[in-house]
Design goal:
The protein has a nine-stranded antiparallel beta sheet. The chain is built from three helices and nine strands; from the N terminus they run αβαββββαββββ. 21% of the residues lie in helices and 38% in strands. The longest helix is centred in the first third of the chain and has 17 residues, at 2-18. By secondary structure, it is α+β, with helices and mostly antiparallel strands. The radius of gyration is 18 Å and the shape is globular. The chain has helices spanning 2-18, 36-46, 112-121; strands spanning 20-21, 51-60, 68-75, 80-87, 90-97, 133-140, 148-156, 160-167, 173-180. The chain starts with a helix and ends with a strand.
C-alpha cells in the first residue's frame, strides 16, 4: 500500500509541476499582442531560444479582445514546444507539448483587435448570441515555399460556423468559409 501511495504522490507532483506559473504576473491580456512580452520572457526562461509560433483564443470578443490567450513557442535546439497561457494577470507555462508549429511568427502582424475589424469588414457577423470568437494566428504555405502569416477568425452559433482567413500583415481577405449544422 505504501508503494501505491508513493507512486500516486509522485504522479500528482509531476502533474502539478507540469504547469509552472511564472513569477512575474503579466498585465491583463486584452488583445493578443498585449501579453507577448511576458509570455516570451516565460518561454525563454523555459528554453532560451524559444520563438513564438502560434497565438490563439476560443473565447474572443467582437472587438478582438479575450480574457485568455494561448501562445505556442518552439525551441529549435531542444526541438520542443511549450504553451504559454496568459489569463488575466497570470502566466502559466505548459512545457514540452507536442510540436504543432515550428516557424517563427516574428512581430510584424496585425493585433487581434485589427484582425477582428478586418473580419467584420469582410462580412463576418459577430453577435451577442454567438458562443465566442475564435482567433488564431499562424504561419502557413511552407509546403509551397511561400511562408505567410495568417489570422483565422471564426464565429460559431448553434446552427452554423463561419470563418475568414486574413493576411496577418494587412488584414486582406484571403478566403471565407461557411458551414451550416442543421
Amino acid at each position: 500500500m505504501a508503494i501505491k501511495a508513493t507512486k500516486a504522490s509522485s504522479m500528482a507532483a509531476m502533474l502539478i509541476a507540469r504547469r509552472m506559473p511564472s513569477e512575474a504576473p503579466a498585465a491583463a491580456a486584452s488583445t493578443a499582442k498585449e501579453a507577448i512580452k511576458e509570455a516570451t520572457a516565460a518561454a525563454q526562461k523555459w528554453q532560451p531560444d524559444a520563438v513564438l509560433t502560434h497565438v490563439s483564443t476560443i473565447k474572443g470578443r467582437g472587438d478582438g479582445t479575450a480574457d485568455q490567450w494561448l501562445y505556442t513557442y518552439y525551441a529549435p535546439k531542444a526541438k520542443k514546444s511549450a504553451i504559454i497561457t496568459a489569463k488575466g494577470k497570470q502566466i502559466e507555462v505548459e512545457p514540452d507539448v507536442r510540436n504543432t508549429s515550428i516557424d517563427p511568427l516574428g512581430t510584424d502582424f496585425l493585433d487581434s483587435d485589427k484582425a477582428a475589424e478586418a473580419a467584420a469588414k469582410a462580412g463576418l457577423k459577430f453577435g451577442k448570441s454567438d458562443k465566442g470568437l475564435g482567433l488564431g494566428l499562424t504561419v502557413g504555405n511552407q509546403a509551397v515555399g511561400k511562408p505567410q502569416r495568417f489570422w483565422s477568425v471564426t464565429v460559431m452559433t448553434d446552427s452554423a460556423m463561419s470563418s475568414v482567413t486574413l493576411n496577418a500583415a494587412d488584414g486582406a481577405l484571403i478566403k471565407r468559409d461557411d458551414l451550416k449544422f442543421k
